């Protein structure tokens, strides 16, 4: 009981008052919910920081099994390949979110990208990929949608 | 001294308040000045930094344009070339600049990074960039440098300078972005941190002082109000009176003491709760009559009321009498019943002298209250200012000083032989000499209660005895008497002192009489006889004073050997009011005395009729105003037989 309280207090202390974490959580919740409007969205990610940030989210549930995830958020190509292997043979078809520009640019499967550049949050969508996945975004996201890179 | 203390207290209170205000104001001003000067200097630092950033951007722009053919994209798209330029940009990145990069605006109106001086997490060529700030696009549109403030999406950046780069045709094709580090600015500001801390400490000090001042105010209002209020009656209490006497003199107040008579019967009949409710209503009634008055419940059902001078003013005696009448007639409801209270009131005007403080005033009014209480027809007693001046004779220190200075004298009243109309003896009566007016002699009843039972009383007795023996030595034919209380003889020190005096003045002792006043009942006649026997052994005579009053009885005449019997004035006066019964009694005393060889003296002989009737009863010696008032001994010695004859 005491340990659990201490853990939550530490977790809160880490994230609380960190504007970057706040923004990340807000953007992720909005983004994932827009793409897949569900009460409870499941996300798989290797990224420690994202795990820490989203552990508090009421909307997003983190999972350590990519086959059960609605979304997979990755930063590196190796991660992308590992998840692809894990998904082989399963019916799971999660949507891919890149946490890095290059990963998004060079892998067609990623439908969205979220990363930080020059201390600013960056969101990125490509029209063909959105069309392919049948994703319709709200007008708030329009300015982040490009036709090509 | 007292008044000086009060003034000093007031002055100190004001002084403390002024000092507190000055300190708070001084700290507030100082804090404000420090704060503004810090802000000013910080602003100056920032302005300098920004000016430097513009100059820096200009320098980089020149270099870039030179090296990249006016930011030629086809050249920049070459990875190798671009890395070289990026390295050059990186060389410009100092502690002040968090990021230096270049943007271009594509036809889709989106911004893309084309150069990036950062070595870590370096952007790709032509990577889209969403700065979340319109100033970027605005700079492209207007071609003017723009300065943007830090916003929530760009942490760690204090300011962004967007510096448009024009090509040879004058078109804005790209922009250089210099982002000033927030941590660097904080570092710059840290120079003034110690001052900032000082300012902060001072602001906190001011805030705490203001809070303390407010708290003290609240404390005075709430806590002190509770502390000074009598919970039973709602009036002020003695603690307030003490506080009041430290802050004020009575010069601006009429003092009124009110005592509710027989209030116990109300408590007994209606219960304590109802009694307390009546007390509260009583206080309310006083406040109704004198809204600006200060009502203090001193003890039980006694109230001390201070009425401001300006409220009563002229005709204050009538005001007080009317006030008493209203209080006596007012109805107080207890349930369905209505009762009236009987109150006794003593009042005094504002004293002219500062010597009379609250405590002294209470004593004066208290003494008068005894008079009022003992007279069932008297409800109000108003004291004049003159009465107040006598109060100092009750001040122990004042009396002590008089005795230390030996300001004591005696007046003498002759005892007359009505047969010869000559004086046979003189009663010495102690008087204080007023130090402010040596002609003024102060009667013992004013000061005696103050010193009775103290060593000062022994001192007074010794002073009187010294003077009496001096007179006896001076006038060899004169007989004198002095007064002693029976209770004095229980004081071993006093008795020893008298015996010593008698021993010292053995030659004169046989011309001295001690008049013993029976202020309390003689407990043991044998012990008493033994003591007076010691006096008599030196030849001194003993008289029983005020015989026929108080405890005096015929038993004493049997048990004790008296040399003189002095018949009390109250008995003597009866010879006028009830001569049929008084004359036989007086005659019997005279007869008993003559049989024992005891001298009989009648006191308080005020007129010839009394003297004649006393003589008729067989009383030979008399004393009183008819013959002579007390005066200096020498007044009588020149002509000791010049007193009125009694036929």
Please tell me how large the radius of gyration of chain A is. Answer: 16 Å
In helices, the fraction of residues of chain B equals 40-55%
In percent, how helical is the residue content of chain A?
A: 40-55%
> Taking Cα atoms only, what radius of gyration of chain B do you get, to the nearest Å?
51 Å
Mean of the pLDDT scores of chain B? 86
Give the chain pair forming the largest contact, with residue counts. A-B, 19 and 25 residues
| Assembly context of the chains | heterodimer
Structural class of chain A: alpha/beta
Main beta-sheet annotation of chain B: 8 strands, mixed, barrel
Main sheet strand line-up of chain B? 14-15-17-18-19-20-21-22
Short précis:
Chain A contains 6 helices and 7 strands. With 149 residues, chain A is α/β, with parallel strands linked by helices.
Describe this protein's structure.
The complex is a heterodimer of chains A (149) and B (647). With 149 residues, chain A is an alpha/beta fold. Chain A has 6 helices and 7 strands. Chain B has 647 residues and is α/β, with parallel strands linked by helices. In chain B, the strands form 4 sheets. An 8-stranded mixed beta barrel of chain B has the order 14-15-17-18-19-20-21-22, surrounded by 5 helices. In chain B, strands 3-2-1-6-5-4 form a 6-stranded antiparallel sheet, sandwiched between helices. The interface between A and B is medium-sized, with 19 and 25 residues.
List the helices and strands and how they pair.
The complex is a heterodimer of chains A (149) and B (647).
Chain A: H1 2-15, H2 19-35, E1 41-45, H3 48-54, E2 60-63, E3 71-74, H4 77-87, E4 95-98, H5 101-106, E5 110-117, E6 120-126, H6 127-133, E7 145-146
Parallel strand pairs in A: 1-2, 1-3, 3-4, 4-5, 6-7
Antiparallel strand pairs in A: 5-6
Helix pairs in contact in A: 2-3
Chain B: H1 2-68, H2 73-76, H3 79-92, E1 97-105, E2 111-116, E3 127-129, H4 134-142, E4 146-149, E5 157-166, E6 172-181, H5 182-190, H6 193-227, H7 238-247, E7 253-260, H8 264-270, H9 272-289, E8 294-299, E9 302-308, H10 309-312, H11 316-329, E10 331-334, E11 337-340, E12 343-348, H12 358-374, E13 380-382, H13 385-389, H14 396-404, E14 408-417, E15 422-433, E16 441-442, H15 444-451, H16 455-474, E17 480-485, H17 492-504, H18 506-509, E18 512-517, H19 525-536, E19 541-547, H20 554-559, E20 564-567, H21 569-577, H22 579-596, E21 599-602, H23 608-616, E22 621-622, H24 633-637
Parallel strand pairs in B: 12-13, 15-17, 17-18, 18-19, 19-20, 20-21, 21-22
Antiparallel strand pairs in B: 1-2, 1-6, 2-3, 4-5, 5-6, 7-9, 7-12, 8-9, 10-11, 14-15, 14-22, 15-16
Helix pairs in contact in B: 1-6, 8-9, 16-17, 21-22, 21-23
